[in-house]
Structure formats: structure tokens, C-alpha cells
Description:
Blueprint: E1 2-3, E2 12-13, H1 18-21, H2 30-35, H3 40-56, H4 58-66, H5 74-102, H6 106-114, H7 130-154, H8 161-188, H9 196-210, H10 232-243, H11 252-260
Antiparallel strand pairs: 1-2
Helix pairs in contact: 3-5, 4-5, 5-8, 7-8, 7-9, 7-10, 7-11, 9-10
Amino acid sequence: xxxxxxxHPSVKQNIxxxxxxxxxxxxxxxxxxxxxxxxxxxxxxxxxxxxxYSEGDSRSLYDYIMTRSNEMSPAFLAMLDLWLEDELKHxxxxxxxxxxxxxxxxxxxxxxxxxxxxxxxxxxxxxEDEFTLLVSLMFDEIGSVYSYRRDLWEYYRHFGPAIxxxxxxxxxxxxxxxxxxxxxxxxxxxxxxxEVKGLLVxxxxxxxxxxxxxxxxxxxxxxxxxxxxxxxxSVLIRFIxxxxxxxxxxxxxxxQELWQWVPIGYQLVPIFAEDLxxxxxxx
Length: 283
């Protein structure tokens, strides 16, 4: 773990070597795919077909923010550079995972990613200023922490230690991004903390109304809301408020349910290639 003193004393980065964990020429042992529980392999391939590209979308969000860099503090911009470095490492890590699990060619991934259209307009509310960006980052990253914890339990752990370690690093990195955004809010935007709860409620409502992901990194969980319990966002909001000293942290059993919940009638939450609404399932 590396502390970056020129950004903020509490801003940290998890340092890990992708080449040491999952080299470019890594070949998964066939027995992992053969012995994976029923539906896990097919679901994991579908999940990766989305997650690979949404991590890469961090670049489009970063590039947009940098067009307004004169509005942002040096500490925020320095933190954002570390965030992008991590997210692009996630993109490459998931590309390698997708390649060795599903056999998808890197050139095919490049073509698909290049064809993506990044739509800023639907999420403009999140991009108003540094304060809204930090709150949005907290919301998005803590959602990713619990999303990746579910993925790690349902998928990554079944495909060998290298793939499992990738899942662990994803969880840890997103948790650090969450905490870094919290530290900057507490140190640079203390006077606006009273606005956080209302903004989080609006962000959650926006995500639930989108029904699809607009390929700009933020609110990518809109494409998989059906994988989580109906109260997922409300628990996350309470968790964020507690981190900022604005409320009481949810009980551990509530947090655990965020990544262990499955809809009635299922043993494994299905992964769909197309966008589907969360109300497909009963709570």
C-alpha cells in the first residue's frame, strides 16, 4: 500500500503487479472450467463481457473531467490520476481474465471497445462540480466493492488462485477509491456535507430510472440491478453517510446480504446478456 503525500495525507493506493498475478500469456488449467459448478462458467463469461468494458470506460470519464480541470483542486486531480491508473489496470486485468476464461481474442475486444459510444448527458447531475463528483465516486465505488465481492464468491474463486487473486485486488482497490473520495470530502468540502444525503438519494433514483448503462463508468450497476436486493442502494447510502460521520453504519448482517442475496427460486443469480430490470425477481 502506497501513501501519496502530495495529494492528501490519507489518500492511498494499493500497489500490485498485474504481470506477477496474471501474465499476458497466462493459460487457465482446463479442469477449472470443467469442474466449475453448473451455470457458473457461462454466467462468468457473460459477466466479463460487460465488466471488461465498463472498467475501460473510466478513461472517457477521466477525459471529460480533465476538460474542466481548472475547476478542480490539485488534490482531487492527483487522486483522480491514481484512480485512473487503477481502473485501467482493472481493464487490462479483466481483458486477460476474459481472454483466458472465454477465449475471446484481444483484437476483438479492442474493436468492441473502440465502437462504444460514451453518453455523458444522462449522468450530468453527477458531474456538476468536484463535490458532486466525489459523492458520486463514493456511491459508485462502494457499489463496486459489494458487486465484486459477489463476483468473487460466485465466479472468480472457482477458476484457480490467479483469477481469484484478481477478484481480491478488485475489491481492495475499489474500497480504497471509496475511502480516498471520503477523505477529500471531509477535508475539502466539510461545509457541504449537509447536502450529501439528498444528493445520494437523487443519484440512487437516477440509477434506478436509467434501466441501462450509458458507458461513462458512473452508474454501471444500472445494467445489473437485478443481481442485488431491492434495498441495495439504501444500505449503501447509510454506509456512505456513516463513513462521513453523518449516520450510523448498517449492521454487518445487512452488509453481508448485499453480496449473498439470491432471488427466490434461484441458487445462483443468473447473468443475462441483455439489460433487464431488477423487478424481474421477487425480493
